[in-house]
Amino acid sequence: MFDRLQRAHITEARNVADRDVINDLAASIGHDRTEFRTLLRDPETARRVEADRQHAQRFQIRSVPTLIEPMTGTRLVNGPIEDLRVQLDFAAWLAGQRGGAA
Question: What is the pTM of this model?
Fold first, then answer.
């Protein structure tokens, strides 16, 4: 569903904040429209989305994709693979300095 939402938003210029659009997208990839609509309206779904938003806010996530190194919680800056390797090496070194596994 994530990939379908992204494609609709980025390449099809569809309003993925519109629940009817979301339901259409879900149906387009095989989800039952009625069941999906029910789940989308469920307060538990809203709670989970809000928990994800809060988690993203704690890590200062503002774009997708965002990479977080799990040992240190370091947010990596997207870029060429060589830059990511340097950042991962530094995060591993930092984890070792803090007593974590490298």
Answer: 0.64
